[in-house]
Structure formats: C-alpha cells, structure tokens
Amino acid sequence: MWRFFPQKNKYVQEEAEFTFDSNRAIPKHIAIIMDGNGRWAQNRRLPRVAGHKEGMETVKTITKHASRLGVKVLTLYAFSTENWKRPEEEVSFLMQLPVDFFDKFVPELIKENVKVNVMGYTEFLPAHTQDAVTRAIEQTKDNTGMVLNFALNYGSRAEIVTAVKDIYAELKKKDASEEEITETLISDHLMTGFLPIELRDPELLIRTSGEERISNFLLWQIAYSELFFTDALWPDFNGELLEMAIAAFQNRDRRFGGLKK
Ligand code: IPE
Ligand code: IPE
Ligand code: MG
What we know:
Belongs to the UPP synthase family. The protein is α/β, with parallel strands linked by helices.
C-alpha cells in the first residue's frame, strides 16, 4: 500500500518501490473510488462540503493526466445509490457539483478531446443536475479521445438487478431459451455496455482514503481488475500518485487463472 504523509507531501510504498514507465502498458480502463473528501475537510476544520469542492479540482487534474497518458476510459465513482443516506445539505451540494464542474470544465474537455459519459440512475437526480449532465454529454459527443465516465447515482447491485430484468423481458419477448444467457449478454446489459467489449472492464481499480472495500462499485466488471489502495485522501491525490498506481499495475503478474508468463 502507498502511504501518504501530508506533512512531507510524500507517498511511500511499504513493500516495494516501482518506477512508472510510460513505455510499458498503460491500463486502458482505470476506475477510481474517489474517497476521503469529508476527512480532508475535517482535518482542516472545514465543513465536509469544502472537501467535495477541492475533490472536484482533483477530478480535473486526474482527467487531464490520464488522458495525456493514453488511458482510454476513466470511470469515476462520484455518487453511489447509498449516498442518499447523507444529510440533505451535503446531498444537495453534491448535486450542484456537476453543474459547476461541467460549466467550467467542458471547454477544457473539448480541447483535450475527452468525451463525457454518465452511468447511473440519472432519472432520480434533480433536474438541474440532469440538465448539466445532458449538456456535457452533448457538447463532447464528437470527441474521439478518452471517455470520462462518471458513475452518478450508481450502485452495482441495482445495476445487476436492472440487467437481469431487461434480459428476462427480452428473452420472453423472443420466446428464447435460457441458453442465450451468456457472459457477453450480461456484460451488454450492464451500464458499461456502451463501451466496446474490450474496454468495459477496468484493468486497474484505485481507491483513495485508506478504505479497502468496493462499496458496491462495478462488481461484475472488476472480476480480474488489479486493485490499488492508497491512504491519500481524494483531494490530495495527484498525477504523480496516479503514475505510482500505474507503476504498481505494470509490476503485477496478471495470470487470469493461468500460470505465470
Ligand atoms: C467521497 O468522499 C465522495 C463521495 C462519496 C461523494 P467522502 O464524502 O465519502 O469522504 P469521507 O469518506 O467521509 O472522508
Ligand atoms: C464510495 O464512498 C462512494 C463514492 C466514492 C462515490 P463511500 O464513502 O460512500 O463508501 P463507504 O460508505 O465508506 O463504504
Ligand atoms: Mg467516504
């Protein structure tokens, strides 16, 4: 695990040190559980929402950095189906964030050739949030570079339930047999199904803030993802640490159930 020392502004790997090599494989799809905004703010005696605001700046930095490294898809967990449990004040701040974020950042996204997508139960978001999302998708739809995929009101169990219901309805309509249910069919019906099949599953999953859990994120898609946990709180995460996560990835032996290469 990478430990972050805010006073020294330094990341230290506990077991081994890897150096990032831009000539080695860069994960095509990186997913990030952006956690620790509240703690970042509380550490500074600020209200939790100040952490979310600062976290938005990290999203900009990491988007540009990942895009320049040649990442094809960056999936960011921004709001879970369980985050509605938080105080109303915090939830409404989080619902305003995409509006501010896209308003200011879309011109840069266009410059960077980044295409925005949002996956999740967006129909339950407030109207102004939905509008901001729809606008950003529309404004970046012709971009051909990295896909910046926000998981907004996303939960993987709900996603799987929806997929199973859709598959059931389709098969019933066609009077098809259960033999048609395959891994590809399931993958097609998940919220990552809009991506080409080889890009749907993240190769690298990063979680900040020291928590080592998945919190209902991409349960199907991370079957063989490399996991990287860091103590850094999301507002402290930066390009250097992203490269360290990739360096760790580059030094993993991905066997997929087979034997060492
Ligand atoms: C992550 O930061 C952002 C969201 C879940 C929206 P948190 O708000 O969970 O921050 P901590 O975990 O309380 O520090
Ligand atoms: C996961 O973080 C959700 C997002 C980052 C959007 P949480 O802070 O909600 O997760 P738990 O509650 O610590 O598992
Ligand atoms: Mg959290």
